[in-house]
TrEMBL record:
Family, per entry: Belongs to the protein-tyrosine phosphatase family.
Example GO molecular function: phosphoprotein phosphatase activity
Recorded coiled-coil stretches: none
Matching Gene3D superfamilies: Protein tyrosine phosphatase superfamily (3.90.190.10)
Protein's name in the database: Protein tyrosine serine phosphatase
Lineage of producing organism: Bacteria, Bacillati, Bacillota, Bacilli, Lactobacillales
């Protein structure tokens, strides 16, 4: 079925250490409010999505509630509930129009250091191994909170830096249409400067993800230390994740 969901893609097939990611298990994208029946059928029947993980805030989820079908597990995990200033929601983009790049860099640092990000990502990653099933994880745009989750998964599984950043930056192609529509919808509520800032906020930049990994290095020294001390993942976690989500090639 050829069905469009904003910024949607599966992680299956990406090359990682000793193989590639299994198909049919992990999918990422934007919020899934007001889905059509064809879109629901695509997620429910074609992909057999059994769990939806929502990284948005409570306010975002209330304003644009996910379309949920019978039997699917819906799991809200607000990874930025501790954030004092963020540019990842629509309101955050508008409110921080003047310095959106600096706000985004600060947000990516908070996705390393804040208690809510550490606890939220810990919960998400733990459930991937404790209860593996086809999972769709998302936030508002599917680019920042979701992008970090995907990047950490890929790095844990041994993907190259190129693979990690290519997946992250793919958002800018996959959100072009949705970004233009959103700016058009909000145009009468924003100044020209705010519209420009919104356009900038709706795309990802290589420097944002690089800043996330730089913050990991500054705070923890090694990525493995971040997994253990920041995310509180057990020493054998990565091996478990690889055994479940990687098809080995020899």
């Amino acid at each position: 079925m050829d069905v469009e969901i904003t910024n949607f893609r599966g992680l299956g097939g990406y090359p990682v250490a000793n193989g590639k990611m299994k198909n049919g298990l992990l999918y990422r994208g934007g919020q899934i409010d007001n889905l059509s029946s064809d879109q629901v059928t695509f997620l429910e029947d074609d992909l057999n999505i059994a769990r939806v993980v929502d990284f948005r805030s409570l306010d975002e989820a209330k304003q644009f509630p996910d379309t949920i079908w019978p039997g699917v597990i819906y799991q809200p995990i607000d990874v930025l509930v501790d954030a004092k200033k963020s540019g990842v929601s629509i309101q955050g983009m508008i409110s921080n129009a003047g310095d959106i790049s600096q706000v985004m860099l600060a947000t990516y640092a908070q996705l390393v250091t804040s208690d809510s990000a550490q606890k939220g990502y810990h919960q998400f990653f733990e459930e991937l191994v404790e209860d593996p099933k086809p999972t769709y994880f998302h936030c508002f745009a599917g680019k920042d909170r979701t992008g970090i989750a995907a990047a950490v998964i890929l790095k844990m599984l041994g993907a190259s830096e190129k693979t990690i950043f290519d997946d992250y930056l793919l958002t800018n192609q996959l959100r072009k249409k949705a970004n233009a529509q959103l700016i058009n919808q909000l145009a009468d509520k924003m100044t020209a400067a705010q519209q420009h800032a919104m356009a900038k906020a709706l795309v990802v930049d290589r420097s944002y993800l690089a800043h996330f990994f730089d913050t990991v290095k500054r705070e923890y020294g090694q990525f493995e230390t971040y997994l253990r001390e920041g995310l509180q993942l057990e020493p054998g976690y990565v091996d478990q994740l690889r055994s479940l989500y990687v098809t080995e090639s020899f």
